[in-house]
Design goal:
mainly alpha, 4 helices, elongated
């Protein structure tokens, strides 16, 4: 599949509008995947701790915190909520 993009690049002619929409479609697909992973676990709701950790991480990333701090704060938030019984 990956090789087909390289091989078919010169054979396919995409309109300008479609070329502008493709990056937005990729971003939308990535956001949907991240949302599903943050909210679901094995086909059921993952609980409050995971989305809360993701929200803390997203807030810190938005505030341009260092990546290590974002990951550690998100994990710590989820872990602490689970420790006090908020699954």
């Amino acid at each position: 599949m990956r090789l087909s993009g390289v091989l078919l690049r010169d054979r396919l002619e995409l309109s300008d509008r479609l070329q502008r929409l493709l990056p937005m479609a990729a971003a939308t697909l990535l956001a949907a995947l991240a949302g599903t992973a943050a909210l679901m676990e094995g086909g059921a709701f993952a609980g409050v701790a995971r989305p809360a950790g993701v929200a803390v991480g997203a807030l810190l990333a938005w505030r341009r915190a260092p990546f290590v701090l974002v990951v550690l704060a998100a994990a710590l938030t989820a872990a602490l909520l689970r420790q006090v019984g908020i699954a």
